[in-house]
Amino acid sequence: MTNPLDDTLAALQKIQDAIDTVKTKKTITPEKQILQDYDKIISHLEDSASSLINVVVIFWKHEKLL
Questions:
Q1: Is-contact 59 8, C-beta < 8 A?
Q2: Residue 60: strand, helix, or coil
Q3: What are phi and psi for residue 2, nearest 5 degrees?
Q4: pTM, to two decimals
Q5: Exposed site from 10, 30, 39, 48, fewest CB < 10 Å?
Q6: How much is the pLDDT for 54?
């Protein structure tokens, strides 16, 4: 069984990697609609990352109590 905190940190890293990839693709895409969609994707990924950071804080708080 894996540690849920480790899994969460790995997910956070994957989200950051996805954000970086979309930002890179955004710099080479000339189409306005695709750029707007990339902005939406980045926004949703950043929201997800923020939520995962909150999860990590809760995990750390819980680990301190043990």
A1: yes
A2: helix
A3: -90, 160
A4: 0.86
A5: 30
A6: 96
Q: Token pair of 13, please?
A: 């890293």
Residues 28-59 pLDDT 10s: 999 999 999 999 999 999 999 999 999 999 99
Backbone angles phi, psi at 45, to 5 degrees: -65, -40
In the chain, where are the structural domains located? 30-66
Cβ neighbours around 45 below 10 Å, total: 20
Tokens for 4, please give them: 């849920």
Measured CA to CA in angstroms, residue 35 lies from 18, 39, 50, 54 at distances of 15, 6, 22, 29
Helix H, strand E, coil C: the string for 3-56 is CHHHHHHHHHHHHHHHHHHHHHHHHCCCCHHHHHHHHHHHHHHHHHHHHHHHHH
